[in-house]
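the two lines:
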Amino acid sequence: MPTKARGPNQRVSQAMGRIISHIILLGGAITMVVPFVWMLSSSLKTNLEVFRIPPTFIPDVAQWQNYIEIFKVVPYGRWFLNSLFITVVQTVLYMFIASLAGFTFARLRFPGRDVIFTLYLATLMVPGEVTLIPKFILMRKLELIDTLTAVILPGIFNAYGVFLLRQFFMTLPESLEEAAILDGASYFRIYWNIILPLAGPALATLAIFSFRGAWNDFTWPLIVINSEHLKPLSVGLASFHGLYETNWPYLMAASTVALIPIIIVFVAAQKYFVRGIALTGLKEG
Amino acid sequence: MERTLSVRHKLSASQRLKWLIRGGGIEKRRALWAYAFLSLSLLGLLVFWVLPIIAAFGLGFLKWTLLSSPEWAGLSNFQRLLDDKYFWNALKNTFYYVAGVMPGIIISLFLAVLLNQKLRFTTLYRTLYYLPTITMWTAIALVWKWLYSPQYGLVNWTLGLIGIKGPAWLSDPNWAMPAQIFTSWWKGAGYNMLILLAGLQGIPRIYYEAAAIDGANWWQQFRHVTLPLLTPTIYFVVVMTFIGSFGVFAQIYIMTEGGPGQATTTIIYYLYNTAFKYFDIGYADVLAIAFFIVVFTFTIIQTQLQKRWVHYT
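prediction for all of em together
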């Protein structure tokens, strides 16, 4: 809170305030980090050392082979690739479909536009948990149970991306495409060559949200996938837990590897994560 | 325009159709393109979102175990819900969990206020607080299960350092839910903090300057400037946290499997078991409807209540 320091007393109390703030924030930061450190530390211990009391953060000898073993005792590599495949395919298709629909709602006038857009918005009002069962039945009817297609499909038609990109496209000036129309450019060219290149930040934000959502999603793949070799990491980890309930070094190694891709994306594109938060946060206010 | 119209009269029916599609004035051409662009997206929306929403309100009237063919069951599933003590217990547990998670917003607000100062390392703090929110629930739930281990876990060892003998957490019916709630605080604090921080940064500085000139101290500024102007953001966070936490599932599935006993069986966990373990589709769908009604009702109540405490400028 910006108050102007008027005298030495106030300056001292401001400095005190800052020190106290740092102490609290540091305490919070340690609370946030310790579970991750503990995860990493446990993943490098033997199955004996992990149960030693008092616990230590630095393993006697780092057991790097735990990270190799997890690929042998369960189809971890396969789970990882499944997750990667699901995440990449879902994100790419979602971006294309959502941006094209968002462009259409934002920049083209056509009969029924507002009614159809309201339908999109209406699907956002119903929490996803409500439709788990009907979606499962639908996948059974389509004979897609136990396929990666079933995991990927519903997500790419999520109306949220359409809504977000429509809002963004509406902020771009109309004059952009007027010249293109006079030059005889098709609407698809306008979308692809003029609007999309200007939407970089909005697309990046949505892509990151999609990536995170697909990589971390648990409930839906848990429901539609049965075969071990088709599970994504999130579900695979759960069955790993069922098999090796007390083998914490293995479980922690497996968890650590599962976090790596998302942490890499986070570090590389942090500003888009923050922007996405601000976008959703400001939607109402 | 007149020229195209006169051309139109000379065309045969099939040519006119072609004209409608290719030429036909900019309005029509644009509309056709719009429908073409929208077709895939709209089809997907109808099949994978709209249809399931409609079906969700119908499946509850069926007796259907997936093995047999569906039969009409009328209201019997709804009748069963009212007498089902497991449902009421799950509802109670879910409310307990949600009521426990909500105060976490205060922690997020506190952190956001601290980070909204001119301080060093704010970016680093922000990154660290945000880290748990981007991670996979399965992995996080496994770590916390390990942290909560009664004998070998870091939580009880740390408590032991200050002379407290920690409970058995996840295997203690009284402590399992508080442990779940604490994990949710840890995982969610950074998300709400960032939204609130964005809200705080949107408050114009001039209000604080005016308040400072009037001699308002730190607390008075917070109470009479920050808090009222932040209420729209707080309201948003409250609603989103409520809806999100009401559907709690993954952490329950991994850490406690609804137990010990039924102590952490929440509505969605109960729904999952009913539908995908016992394949009692009709009844599970009634649970989904009940879930929807509760979430919907509370959202309506919150939108009504917000008129009393949310200030829009």
